[in-house]
Design goal:
about 375 residues; alpha/beta; two-stranded antiparallel ribbon; 13 strands; about 20% strand; globular
């Protein structure tokens, strides 16, 4: 599609120069945001043709579900070399560990990450990890899974979350004793960027609708800006239906009629709420993967970010969310055969229903679930 320059002059007064240049490109081309979501990054490789990927097992059950991934990859001879970084609550004050994680992810361009503990000061490290790497887009797909009994069927929604600002900007202070102010930061440039990412994602994945989630009826300036940016970007995509919903109504609609949603785009905090709620609708935190994108980096991790510290060392956690995340990582790296085989094996295990961890109604252990997945891979 080609657009006349005069069409864009209406927006030039408020678009940043960088976004203005980006919007001048035809929608049909591989725009920067969309290419980050769909074109495999080509990170450095080690001798022997193996791609080096950063692995951060994280806290709680993270090392146990990361073990499932490494076990499966080793069994399949996946050409991946993990560079494991120990970043967890045990080295909370060790800035060297955090710097090592940043350096590794910057060098490799692709990472697989467990959930980091957010208690105390470590929550700041979570924010810094996204901020330093500018991983601005978090994508969570919540889809009904055959073999997993839930109240609703036919769910297939994409929650796209702006990942670097909003209430998660971390700007809080106590102005006077007993009075705390927390600043919510919404910027035009980042709102346009995530809106553009969402529409490009919808276009590339043959999705029909994008819904902007907001609270502009109350936060008229901040959420009003976000909503307005989504509306303006939507005009560049006439083939995609656009609508908007207030966040509280969205939560109600998700539990009443989740099938109405397709692609959803929202600021940071709302994305956290919606992705966790939607994960519960399709079976829980143990089943939903996610991915976060920056300009030249992609990090894959469970979609519902829970460490399950109380289950650490018990090997009862469901590894499927982490294993699915690793499978989508392989597809991102153009190792489609390996990724598809893992996804197919998981689907077969769930349909058979013979192996189920506690969260989906069974008593199987983490390692038993891993073994069941391997058995299906061997049969294929």
């Amino acid at each position: 599609l080609s657009f006349k320059l005069s069409y864009y002059n209406e927006y030039k007064s408020y678009l940043s120069f960088r976004m203005y240049k980006s919007l001048l490109r035809p929608v049909s081309t591989a725009l920067q945001c969309r290419s980050m979501a769909n074109v495999p990054i080509k990170p450095g490789t080690k001798y022997g043709g193996k791609t080096t990927v950063t692995l951060i097992p994280g806290d709680g059950v993270g090392p146990e579900i990361a073990e499932s991934v490494t076990t499966i990859f080793r069994h399949m001879s996946v050409p991946i070399q993990f560079e494991t970084i120990s970043l967890n609550k045990d080295n909370l004050k060790d800035e060297g560990a955090f710097d090592a994680a940043i350096t590794s992810l910057q060098r490799n361009g692709v990472g697989l990450k467990g959930v980091l503990n957010r208690s105390g000061d470590f929550r700041t490290h979570n924010l810094e990890l996204r901020g330093n790497l500018d991983m601005y887009a978090n994508v969570v797909r919540c889809k009904s899974i055959q073999g997993v009994g839930t109240r609703h069927e036919g769910i297939d929604l994409i929650a796209i979350r702006e990942n670097t600002e909003g209430e998660y900007s971390g700007l809080e202070h106590e102005s006077v004793s007993g009075v705390v102010e927390s600043l919510k930061v919404i910027t035009e440039e980042k709102s346009l960027r995530i809106a553009k990412f969402a529409f490009d994602y919808a276009l590339e994945h043959n999705r029909n609708k994008v819904t902007c989630i907001h609270k502009a009826n109350i936060m008229k300036l901040s959420d009003g800006l976000f909503k307005r940016c989504c509306e303006e970007v939507s005009k560049l995509y006439p083939s995609i239906t656009f609508d908007s919903q207030i966040i509280d109504n969205t939560c109600q609609q998700l539990v009443i009629n989740p099938q109405q949603f397709d692609v959803m785009v929202m600021p940071n905090l709302y994305g956290n709420l919606v992705s966790n709620l939607a994960a519960g609708l399709v079976g829980g935190a143990g089943l939903v993967p996610s991915k976060s994108y920056g300009e030249d980096i992609a990090v894959f991790e469970p979609g519902a970010r829970h460490t399950w510290m109380e289950m650490k060392g018990m090997y009862v956690a469901n590894p499927i969310a982490m294993v699915l995340s690793s499978a989508f990582m392989l597809k991102h790296l153009a190792l489609h055969d390996y990724g598809d085989r893992i996804i197919s094996a998981i689907e077969k295990v769930l349909v058979k229903g013979e192996c189920r961890t506690r969260d989906i109604g069974g008593n199987s252990t983490t390692r038993e679930m891993t073994r069941a997945i391997l058995d299906e891979i061997d049969v294929a």
